[in-house]
């Protein structure tokens, strides 16, 4: 799959692997590393190579590690700056096309009217609906590609299409990311409780069916919109037929093959839930807490300075608990200087779970220092 | 004005100059260099220092050169990468708060309901409306700042507020930018013909009253929305009371004090139109062509390679005219190699004016190579 | 201390703290964070603020945390790219002036001829030699600054001078760095065994008296050269009067105040050795191994890919031991794909201690993957 | 030619073209774009494709446009930061191996002792000397490659070897660069007057036979050292048998096929001088001035700010002439503000020719603002 053609004419490609089981469907699409420094998903996919062989593959899977060589090679100095495209400033996971609604990346030709489709398919079977709607989505992506021809296809759209043309085929989509400094956690469609539990990941952020540009949204929201359209038009037996997850596998810049085996185990359990693998999903080994993404809040750094985290990511906290110390030695103005003058404490503004610290230990003021789940419930 | 506090605790500031005339109003707000490598507006403002002194200053002006030290100092190697914030990927001119509508940067507390205001002010005088609505906008910005306190103010919002808190005071706003490689051109609110003519700039892009995040939009759209709300509520004599322009002063990375004198002359003419300076605006010296921003189209590079422009920015072209050659030596595959094999021609897909070439002469595929005005009319 | 003046005219400064003890000398100069992402030294200095107060300060100390705001703010995306100056490509720790020899950054006026000084001071007392030679070095730095005036002082020289003008005053210099992913280790002048032991840091790299541009070299080599010159001219009782160390405090991008207390304890022990603090240095708690920097070898990555470290930094290994796996999923070419095809093993080319892994877990081919001490001895 | 293997396993290659004439020798090696944003040499090479066909090719030529895809793709924002390697900070034109002397990039195995060779070849014919010494250089490069195998070849050495393995074969080497903002000029070996005149380029910087890491030096200095060794050993008829030039073709980020035709004409004239093409070189159309690189002096910016150049690059100036204005609006502190307060004038510290301005119009303090030739003579 060609992801970008560089200024020197080199084609940057991602390797695409097809694992064909006894049936073509259910089909899973699993990719990793769309953000350049979020590496662990590659280990998970490599471990899946082995586990899919060993397990009983009932459906099929498309596996794409290293899906974004553009981001992965944006290395300046030691580290990779892989979230935003150096050419366009775009977050690589915010430019997907929203086929059933107006999108920032919108291309008129690619708009799909779910109500028209529902009205025309009120008496179709569920499998006719599934196949027919997928045909319509496929046609919308083709139209977007065609529309790009007169004025040249924008590199961001080319990137989105390369991925969406594969993902649109799938019944379940998993986009493997990592947090900055974080435990495993999951973005799941609101209400997908059983599926979320199948992953056995302890923290779940529930996303409503609205569009912010990410692949999970681009994959499941059109099918949600379709189900809603059927309801609006009087037919209530059409479920959302595609689910999609952003799976956060620990911290940025971490890569471990042995952890990858663990991660693959979690994903395989979810694939059993979706019938891609034979068998039953695992029971989660511990409590799973969830909250709405609307209750997932970021605390911005109150000063520019060094970050000394006080709690580990994944820790429950109470309002007022100390989360981190921000440290700026230039704040020491007494003689002799005192360490304590350099410190500004950051405390929890409410109860919740600290999920994530900024990847860097030195940050400007006003940057996401900590992200917290609030208004928790058990899943 | 503090624009950013760095990780080492240094405050990056922009210099703010007040030119107080005989009256406080009309008040102009003029800033330059919000994108780090777009320099010429600074020369224009410096030249205005002298011309405001010489001309008869009836109203007042706030002048802010070098408004964005963050962007201006994003220098990697020789050049400045000043459009997108290295920390957040955000375009520095897309994060302003949209006070009368839902915005990406939206902060609930800062929403202003124009219909409520219109209904409450159906019998107010125009000057009561102007002062009252400005009070409401000011309060909305204050609310946004206050709302940031619980979780810390996001650096992007801090940047937007620092500028909008000044710009909201103004009757006319001018944001001085440059194109990539381009002549002088102007983004003007749709219908602001006389004002646009006062600048005497030969190319005008007309922007509808919708919001994409830029300062000109953030400044005039709320007042447009207010006027529309009055119309909806039965009062038709309330005009849009604030105008805002993005003034593009030539090419990126160009800086000339002598050209700045010319640019200041154009701005002074517009300030006379708005009554900030005494006297009549100049008559434009030549034809002014305009089109809607919806008809301002970008041609993306068909291959990655070197760019050999064939027409100068600002040139009218016909459909099919050769605009540029894209050159990739690796395409030469015959022996002996031939220059012509390296070349992919880029031709105009329709009639129009070539306004802009990419700043770099070496670009990947799918990047904005040329931007063209189409469906032109004379202003 | 002004370190840089930006393009927008902002002066980037480093905070300088003087801890004055009962006597002016011995004087220690301690700085941290000359490389932008090497943060832990700041925690050590802050902890020293408190411990110097509590301990009996016999001499004095200059403490400069955050010495390089230029490097610390070179943040692109999440991480800091703080080793090389974005403007000049220069390693911030390779541009110091070599006053007693030819240097890359050489400025003719600043050359100090140690033999002339030795000949003229054959019958001086040791303290006259120490004071006299420091005067000469000081004058050489002043000459370098003066010479810059005709053509403007180069920013790299300005940076070097700002630091060297302070460090030249000291009897012992400590430059606090970190490795990439590493334990605590120490660069010490060849032969400075007792001093090295005083730090109690388990790994020591011994540097000969040659010049590569680093601050430790720039600080002690002139005094070494002086001692050698006296010997050449027949006087053998003049020791090297200044020592300098690069102290590596763990991994890049790590910052911990509590670890800083530990680090300060190690530094305080060394300061007791040098008589800056009253009392005896601690005995090292474990074995200290050392090797020459000439036996400190880097293994470059054999392929571009992901890095899965197998041994922890600080681990002794035998020739042939597996150190890391490099992983490139695109190497899987069989159907079905196999994890093992993606892996290239990296094994120890000889016996030694693995000291350091690259900071990033995704690197191109030919980049320092692992650094190893070889030809070890106990100190 | 593979130049780099990325972290995602993609091989970045440069296209290599061989133009075989009637004889294998004399052989020219011509490359372009080793610095990522120095583009015009590519146009020259493409134009040479055509002119070598038309002219009578007596010897042969290796032509490598786009020799450095690593540098060319280091694009951040609009522009290319292509001088320093993002991974190592290294200037791409400073890492070549110095085979006959100690070099920074030195690899012990690759050292060639010219005196031993001279002594062993005192009675050899000139052509035996030429072929024999080239064999020795070739072997030294092979040894460097072999030595890299135990610990993995450093990416910088891999880059240098890929180029030097081709360039070592040549009788004349041309490395096509550009200045920042500059006219055409030439770096030529000291004393190569006739060859320099053959290029017809108006400004020549003469480089002595010492090594700073650039390709021209790496190519001709070993042959210079050989000639000197013969003289030291009593044989005076052995000339320097290889010449090498850095040809600066105008300004950074400029690319023009039509200018490329002009540039190819200049290079073809030099190729006639060296017998690669049949016929006589052109007579220069105007005066050629030269100076030693030791008299090529840089003026560093006295303040951080905007740059308003006053003279065009290539202009002769007298001591005290105004060269540029540096402009920082924040320096305006009076009320009302005055343009003149923002300006710091930069004047010529001596007579000479202004050859080059910084590529950017906004720079920090202490950065190369202007470079001037001084102590000129006519060639």
Average pLDDT level of chain A: 96
- Assign the structural class of chain A, choosing from mainly alpha, mainly beta, alpha/beta, alpha+beta, or little secondary structure: alpha+beta
Quaternary state reads: homotetramer
Major sheet of chain A: 9 strands, mixed
Which pair of protein chains has the largest interface, and what are the residue counts? A-C, 59 and 59 residues
Q: Estimate the global geometry of chain A from the Cα principal axes.
A: globular
Strand content of chain A: 25-35%
Count of individual helical segments of chain A: 8
Helicity of chain A, as a percent range: 25-40%
What's the total count of β strands of chain A? 21
Low-pLDDT parts of chain A are none
Write down the Rg of chain A.
Answer: 22 Å
How would you characterize the overall build of this protein?
The structure is a homotetramer of 379-residue chains. By secondary structure, the first copy, chain A, is α+β, with helices and mostly antiparallel strands. Chain A has helices at 40-54, 69-72, 114-120, 126-151, 155-167, 193-199, 215-232, 257-273; strands spanning 2-5, 11-13, 17-19, 27-32, 60-64, 75-76, 79-80, 172-179, 184-189, 203-207, 243-251, 289-292, 296-300, 305-309, 315-317, 322-327, 343-347, 352-357, 362-363, 368-373, 377-378. In chain A, the strands form five sheets. In chain A, strands 3-5-4-8-11-9-10-12-21 form a nine-stranded mixed beta sheet, sandwiched between helices. A four-stranded antiparallel beta sheet of chain A has the order 13-20-18-15, with no helix packed on it. Chain A has a four-stranded antiparallel beta sheet with strand order 17-16-14-19, with no helix packed on it. In chain A, strand 1 and strand 2 form a beta hairpin. In chain A, helix 1 crosses helix 8, helix 3 packs across helix 7 (215-232) and helix 4 packs antiparallel against helix 5. The longest helix of chain A has 26 residues, at 126-151. Chain A starts with a strand and ends with a strand. Chains in contact: A-B, A-C, A-D, B-C, B-D, C-D. At the A-C interface, helix 1, strand 6, strand 7, strand 14 and strand 19 of A face helix 1, strand 6, strand 7, strand 14 and strand 19 of C.
